[in-house]
UniProtKB/TrEMBL annotation:
<dbReference type="InterPro" id="IPR052929">
    <property type="entry name" value="RNase_H-like_EbsB-rel"/>
</dbReference>
<dbReference type="InterPro" id="IPR036397">
    <property type="entry name" value="RNaseH_sf"/>
</dbReference>
<dbReference type="GO" id="GO:0003676">
    <property type="term" value="F:nucleic acid binding"/>
</dbReference>
<protein>
    <recommendedName>
        <fullName>RNase H type-1 domain-containing protein</fullName>
    </recommendedName>
</protein>
<dbReference type="Pfam" id="PF13456">
    <property type="entry name" value="RVT_3"/>
</dbReference>
<feature type="domain" description="RNase H type-1">
    <location>
        <begin position="38"/>
        <end position="156"/>
    </location>
</feature>
<dbReference type="InterPro" id="IPR002156">
    <property type="entry name" value="RNaseH_domain"/>
</dbReference>
<dbReference type="InterPro" id="IPR044730">
    <property type="entry name" value="RNase_H-like_dom_plant"/>
</dbReference>
<feature type="region of interest" description="Disordered">
    <location>
        <begin position="1"/>
        <end position="20"/>
    </location>
</feature>
<dbReference type="InterPro" id="IPR012337">
    <property type="entry name" value="RNaseH-like_sf"/>
</dbReference>
<dbReference type="GO" id="GO:0004523">
    <property type="term" value="F:RNA-DNA hybrid ribonuclease activity"/>
</dbReference>
Amino acid sequence: GELQLITDHKEKAKPMGKQSPGLNKRWIAPLADFMKLNVDGGVAKVQNKGAAAVVCRNADGVYQGSSARVYDDITDPPMLEALACCEAMALAKDLNIQKLRIASDASVVIKAINEGSRCSYSSVLKEIEHRRRDFQVVEFVHEGREFNTHVHNLVKCSLSLDHDRYVWLLKPWDVIIVPIVVD
């Protein structure tokens, strides 16, 4: 697909109303014909694993889907943030989305993606660049942590799951009740 940068879009905080409980009130909407994919990565405190997660919403803030991937033996935060950007593109492909705005609170990672910097996770950046061709437009933007509370919570919950990819399409991840085994 054709790559283009959109620089004239002025971001502003948008109140979300009651679209989803727990969604930060200052979520930043994308352009009307784009989908917004908030991403985050995180490391387990006591286990040797990390997670990368994404929550997708349309320009009105309506939930479209979410996913998380849990990785054994990956505990480098920038690597996990870059992997979360890859996961956003995988979810966008699952949802048949062509115009994406991927937002992360990791400014170093967003800068590396946009500038093609060499770093310890350059192989992930190459994968991102390769996957960009599958879409009409892909934007990578930095947004402060206060704008990604929902996806941050998804990462924290995902760290309790086993190594795998998890996708929630019909209902947000935080509404799903995960069964537990009771002895």
